[in-house]
Write a structure and sequence with these properties.
By secondary structure, the protein is an alpha/beta fold. The chain is 39% helix and 21% strand. The protein is built from 8 helices and 12 strands. A hairpin with a 3-residue loop joins strand 11 and strand 12. The mean pLDDT is 89.
């Protein structure tokens, strides 16, 4: 059973989400105010959470600010944005703050639960049978520990703060160095979806580059293959 925090100011929507989460075997906690949620996420209860479902337009603290707070203090805690806003720039804003997935109202509760299960499955994926260390240039990922480090100019490793999805994308690309993947392929192999907004992939790649590249505008590790998608350099 997973512990899920639902931050939603519409009691009807919150009731439906809670009911479906409970039916799927999860424990749900509902908060209707962004200020309450901000305090909760700073308290001891936050350490027990497995997932946050977060509305964007909230009284008190805005959902984007809450997402940034989660990414700052609980970088491994997955976040699914739940909002009535459907414009692409609004979706991208949520993803750029570190959301792992995005569901737009009105939504199918069953689809939301499928996305919840997908995110939780990625976050709690089983540890490999043996150690798997991936290294490309200054970048190293310990897959079992889900720990990524980047060597600085002096060769000293610095640990990177990656979200669940960012780590998933990075591991997938580093497992297949030199191989180009379309955004559609990455959506299917990393997110586990054969449909969805492919700008999600673009935003995650952009965020990864900000963390692993010396100059994100001129990436040397995670490169764009024009007309195709993205690939990790075989040897950087």
């Amino acid at each position: 059973m997973s512990s899920v925090l639902v931050v939603e100011d519409d009691p009807t929507v919150a009731e439906v989400v809670e009911a479906y989460l409970t039916r799927a075997g999860h424990q749900a906690t509902w908060l209707a105010d962004g200020t309450q949620a901000a305090a909760y996420l700073k308290g001891p209860e936050a350490a027990e959470l497995d997932l946050v479902i977060l509305d964007l337009l909230l009284p008190g603290v805005h959902g984007l600010e809450l997402c940034a707070q989660v990414r700052s203090t609980l970088p491994d805690l997955p976040v699914i944005m739940l909002t009535a806003l459907s414009e692409e720039e609004d979706r991208i804003a949520g993803l750029e703050r570190g959301a792992d997935d995005y569901v737009t109202k009105p939504f199918s509760p069953r689809e939301l639960i499928l996305r919840v299960e997908s995110v939780l499955r990625r976050a709690k994926q089983s540890v490999p049978a043996g150690p798997e260390i991936l290294t490309i240039g200054p970048l190293t990922v310990d897959v079992a520990a889900r720990r990524a480090t980047l060597d600085d100019a002096a060769g000293e490793p610095r640990e990177l703060a990656l979200t669940v999805r960012e780590m998933d994308v990075l591991i997938h690309l580093m497992r297949h160095p030199g191989e180009a993947f379309t955004r559609e392929q990455l959506m299917e192999r990393v997110w586990g979806w054969t449909f969805g907004d492919q700008s999600t992939v673009t935003v995650h790649v952009r965020r990864i580059r900000q963390k692993i590249e010396v100059d994100p505008a001129d990436p040397q590790l995670l490169q764009t293959v024009w007309g195709v998608g993205y690939r990790m350099q075989r040897d950087a």
